[in-house]
Amino acid sequence: MTEPVITLQRFFARAREGRLTGVRCGKCGALAIPPKELCPACYERAWEPVPLAGEGTIASYTVIRVAPRAYTADVPYAVAVVKLKEGVSLLGRIVEIPLDKLAVGLPVRFRPLVKGDQTAVGFGPA
Ligand SMILES: [Zn+2]
Questions:
Q1: What is the pTM (predicted TM-score) of this model?
Q2: How confident is the model at residue 86 (pLDDT cuts 50, 70, 90)?
Q3: Is 42 within the bounds of a domain?
């Protein structure tokens, strides 16, 4: 078994530094983010890391009003599926955008959400 080119751990370590990294399948060219074990398109394991610009638009979003316990202080907040300009979609939390300004198609930019040693994917104004 070979080591994956980019593990989830490394994905989040890079995200913490503000760099978004996807993986491209060396076999069929499919792009995936966050990194997966096997290519969902051809089931090969031939990933190459690809730096992504972190720019995209909101494809869909949901406003969370009842949150898991760790996030109750944060409600209401929005999570969105963002379609990155490279063509892949990624789920992240919306920050620094008023909820009533959210719209499908709104341009956003990746920003890491760092809380202690935890890093999550966030998107803020482009
Ligand atoms: Zn593939």
A1: 0.88
A2: very high
A3: yes
